[in-house]
Amino acid sequence: MTNIAVVGTGYVGLVTGVALSEIGHKVTCIDIDQAKVERMRRGESPIYEPGLDELMTKNIQAGRLFFTANHAEGFTDKDVVYIAVGTPEKEDGTADLRFINQVAKDIATNVKQDVVVVTKSTVPVGTNDHILSVIKEHLVHNVDVQMVSNPEFLREGSAIDDAFHGDRIVIGADAGYAGDMIEDVNEAFGIPVYRTDVRSAEMIKYASNAFLATKISFVNEIANICEKTGANIEDVASGMGMDGRIGHQFLRAGIGYGGSCFPKDTKALAQIAANHDHSFELLEAVIRVNNEQHRSLTNKAKEAFGSLKGRRIALLGLAFKPNTDDMRESPAIAISQELLLAGAEVVAYDPIATENAKRVMPEGVTYVSTAEEALRGADAAFIVTDWSEIKSLELRAYEQYLKEPYVFDGRNCYSLEDVASTSLNYYSVGRKAVV
Ligand code: UGA
User: Fold this and answer.
1) Per UniProt, what is one Pfam family of this protein (predicted)?
2) Which residues pair with 366 in a beta bridge?
């Protein structure tokens, strides 16, 4: 059992803290937001993540999981401090390290015993060295501090499962005992550990996200060519994926990636390269292709209708992917902007993300509480997020409620054979239109 503090209770911090408590460590999660701390103490997760509430409650009751807004209290007697605060994107695409720097100073002023500091947040190569130098510069007590880079690979919506069944745990440490210690801390997860130096660990995180984003943009471009040549992207992706070197995952064509990670991390890596006088052209193209892919449904609708002025469009799904209420960089935002700009009316439905959507979607979107309500009287449906509720919506519902029988499916939720037996005009991604 190790005494651990986790600073920051966003997705990464909270899931990390809860998972570490579940394998037997005594964990205190620290957040500056007192109201949020109160909620978490009651076992209420501030984010929608399947399975998280239950696991929080279980470990709070077991006396292994604590929450505080008081740094001095949070750092007392801790052998390991995890940094999991956000690294938002600055105007120029670089990572904003304001919160990281603040935590480094808080650690320096509060720790009274030797400590290993572990960075979970995604940070540019060299940041862990920087954090260590900030801590050492502000250190109040004469203690030893060592750094470990331990990037996080969890996916929103399946974060709990990923925490216990991830493909690997990357531990980046330079000389010293810290790497061994963090390997011990993680042992009970039973996940393969990959040991490397600090800078390589930092790069593994960016390179992994950039590579996955590249797969998505690549398959989306193949889908666009499939549409022009009459091939079917699902068959193409299945055939490609059977090659073990390529693999089936992340070959789902759609309306482009979103979320808090891929858009931010791809831009940050391109910027890191640029800062080192290297133009990462491949990655720049991946980003451009993705931005363009967000427009694909609207482009198809414009082509089908001529003009979208006065057309009422039902958006089904708003979150950047299913099983999350996260709206950050969701394609729904760009799609709504374009539709409104083209003079269309937008009626939106999401099973979970509506409240978050209201904060980031453009003014002028109407929100309703069922898919049927969104469809009723609309000229077309745009399927934006493949929630299982939306995927299981019967094709009959579109025929019944839509004013015009147009469906633009950004997630290929329906089989072309099923659609062929309806009266719908159906446009999907990388497959022949059914009209
Ligand atoms: C992603 C990575 O998958 C995690 O490994 C990583 O830890 C995380 O970023 C992070 O850096 O914190 P996440 O953003 O939660 O996780 O979501 P993904 O499931 O990877 O999906 C990202 C986006 O790609 C979504 O918009 C999704 O719709 C899209 N996507 C994914 C596709 O369009 N096609 C695919 O085949 C797969």
Assistant:
1) UDPG_MGDP_dh_C
2) 347
* Amino acid at the residue 318: L
Number of helices (H), then strands (E), belonging to the chain: the values are: 19, 14
Q: What is the pTM of this model?
A: 0.95
Residue matched to tokens 């978050």: 356
Pocket test for ligand 1, best of 122, 123, 216 (most atoms within 8 A of CB): 216
Domains contained in the chain, CATH given: 3-196 (3.40.50.720), 205-291 (1.10.1040.10), 294-427 (3.40.50.720)
- Taken in order 216, 222, 225, 227, is the CA torsion positive or negative? negative
CA distances to 47, 120, 275, 348 from 117, rounded to whole Å, are: 25, 10, 27, 44
Q: Is 16 annotated as a binding residue?
A: no
pLDDT tens-digit readout, 349-405: 999 999 999 999 999 999 999 999 999 999 999 999 999 999 999 999 999 999 999
> Ligand 1: which residue has its CA nearest to atom 34?
252
CA distance 153 to 151: 7
- CB contact burial 247-272 (16+ within 10 A = b; e otherwise): eeebbbbbbbbbbbbbbbbbbbbbbb
Q: Please classify residue 435 by burial: count the beta carbons closer than 10 Å to its beta carbon, then call 0-12 exposed, 13-18 middle and 19+ buried.
A: exposed
Residues 17, 4: Cα–Cα separation, whole Å? 8
CA distance 31 to 14: 10
Output the six-digit token pair for 65. Answer: 């999981």
